[in-house]
Amino acid sequence: MNKRELSESERLRYGRHLVLPKIGEEGQLRLKEAKVLCIGAGGLGSPVLMYLAAAGVGEIGVVDFDLVDQSNLQRQIIHRESDIGTPKIESAAQFIHALNSQTKINLYPDGLKVENALEIIQSYDLVVDATDNFATRYLINDACYLAKKPCIWGSVYRFDGQVSIFCAPEGPCYRCLHPEPPAKELAPNCATGGVFGSLCGTIGSLQATEVIKLITGVGLPLIGSLLTYDALSAETELVHINPNPDCVLCGDRPTQQKLLADYDSFCSISLFNLQDGSIAEIYAPDLSAMKNSATEFQLIDVREVEEWNLGFIDGALLIPQGEIFDGSAFVKISHDRPVVLYCQSGVRSINCAQALLHAGYSQVVSLAGGFQAWDQFTLHV
Ligand SMILES: [Zn+2]
């Protein structure tokens, strides 16, 4: 039998694809010949792997170093209760094999690292980024660009999801959209901020759809477009993204021509890194992001008790500015955790931050615009 033919059993199995205009037998054969690497076998990776196996993708690589935890089962539907404590790649492989025994599965239990990224990615046609941290996201982007492999990227946080394709020929890379990672204190963290379980199904399924579109050549893939989805309003938006001519990786004069040595330190820039002794300010959305991140910090209201009684930011401690200037408050303020100060409009808190820096505190920022800015911000979210 000619290698490029579907067997009788495959014709039955993929019948609903075969009758689709523009997919047909040629599209199904392309799926059978395709090699897709999925990095992450969690919330996004679960639907991606399930739909790719079901669609008849011939070879699937799964990268994940993590073990299944009870808290994963709320959304990572490729794993079962009986898998708790075992490697995610194993339960993912079992599921894929049970769904489609013809799929060739390659497992990478060490996770993606600088040392293995290019070698692993090299052997695939397409890469799916189904990870949940910035260090791996930049590593995947850089490796995909260098290896010339399109990356189907997805992300979820709380009730919001995003999908796009990076590193495709003529398209932007992730760095074109986000040249730098957020300060580590502002990085969204699903463990503390939460994630709506079924949102992973929506976004992961969109990623699988984009993979199948790229392989079969059907439709308009999300190259140069960012799809955002708000589960609460059920609204989607398609934002155009141009390649950035100043991008360090894919721009006109690239300065980065290989992988970075250490992506963890690249993504560990702190908001509290003091430069030239000036006071760093953060904005209300940053404070909100910090409250939702894994960062432990002290939020201190330096106004007077009369102002506090009219309203304050949840989680704050009231220490009127006089106690900071006379030093009596220092016993209440730890040196070990970052300090965020706020007042009514953002002036007094800068003076207090200066006083704390003089007193030897090293990680201090002031909320720009103070409680007024916070109040305005929370009215609109
Ligand atoms: Zn770029």
Structure keywords:
381 residues; alpha/beta; Rossmann fold; Oxidized Rhodanese, domain 1; 2 domains; eight-stranded mixed beta sheet; 16% strand; binds zinc ion
Task: Kindly describe this structure.
With 381 residues, the chain is an alpha/beta fold. The protein has two domains: 34-266, NAD(P)-binding Rossmann-like Domain (Rossmann fold); 280-379, Rhodanese-like domain (Oxidized Rhodanese, domain 1, 3-Layer(aba) Sandwich), CATH 3.40.250. The chain is 35% helix and 16% strand. The protein has helices at residues 8-13, 15-18, 24-33, 45-55, 88-99, 117-122, 134-147, 174-177, 190-193, 197-216, 263-266, 284-292, 305-308, 321-325, 348-358, 370-379; strands spanning 35-39, 59-63, 104-108, 126-129, 151-157, 160-166, 225-230, 235-240, 280-282, 298-301, 317-318, 339-342, 364-367. The chain has an eight-stranded mixed sheet with strand order 3-2-1-4-5-6-7-8, with helices on both faces. Strands 9-13-12-10-11 form a five-stranded parallel sheet. Helix 5 links the parallel strand 2 and strand 3. Helix 4 runs parallel beside helix 10. The longest helix is centred in the middle third of the chain and has 20 residues, at 197-216. The protein starts with 7 loop residues before the first helix and ends with a helix. The mean pLDDT is 94. Residues 172-173, 175-176, 244, 247, 249-250 line the site of zinc ion. Zinc ion is lined by residues 172-173, 175-176, 244, 247, 249-250.
Secondary-structure element string: HHHEHEHEHEHEEHHHEEHEHEHEHEHEH
CATH class bucket of the largest domain = Alpha Beta
Using only CA atoms, what is the Rg?
25 Å
Strand order of the largest sheet: 3-2-1-4-5-6-7-8
Number of domains: 2
Mean pLDDT: 94
Could you give me the name of the CATH homologous superfamily of the largest domain? Answer: NAD(P)-binding Rossmann-like Domain
Low-confidence stretches: none
Which class of secondary structure composition applies to the elements?
Answer: alpha/beta
Instruction: Give the overall form.
Output: elongated
Report the portion of residues in β strands. 15-25%
Estimate percent helicity.
25-40%
